[in-house]
Amino acid sequence: MTGFEPEPYCCQCISTIETSISLKSIKKYGYSLCEDCQIWFSTKVFYTTQETLQLYFALRRLEIKAELEKKEELKRSDIRISGSAILIEVDTQHHNHNHEQTIKDLHQQLSHPASNDHPVRIPSPLIKWELPQVTRLIYNAVYRHDNARIFPKSRRA
Question: Do 100 and 36 share a structural domain?
């Protein structure tokens, strides 16, 4: 036994699922998903980057109402946060290789958004290497308090 216990809930819809379904989903997709959400996920996995999926599921675990691949009129985003004006675009073409400066830039973008027409651009390496810090900054922006600590709400049964 590896000591790894899969989460007994679906990362997408937060419903409770059987351990066997969770294990099969983790083996096939890398995430614990119910059978319905596995069908949904199979339509997303081929045209969504791994970093976008990592950020999306990290936000969902915090019960932030994130949505993948939203296209609204002329706007397109990789992730949209429902109930807020935050649109996120995971940027695979970035020029800043300094993670510390990129985190500061992200904090500035989330603290003082220019307008709802421009998505927040997050470099994919930042998600890969600094996912907890990126999700904390987004969480804080969604709930509008700078020093919030991330504690997920209790899981729904």
Answer: no
For the chain, the residue count is: 157
The low-confidence residues of the chain, meaning pLDDT below 50, are: 1, 6, 145-157
Segments forming the whole domain that contains residue 10: 1-47
State the distance between the two ends of the chain, measured CA to CA, in whole angstroms: 27
**Token pair recorded at residue 107:** 């904090």
What's the pTM?
0.74
- 48-73: pLDDT as tens digits: 888 999 999 999 888 888 888 755 55
Give one DSSP letter per residue of 18-58, joined into a string.
-HHHHHHHHHHHSS---HHHHHHHHHHTTTS-HHHHHHHHH
Scan for tokens 């932030």, then name that residue: 64
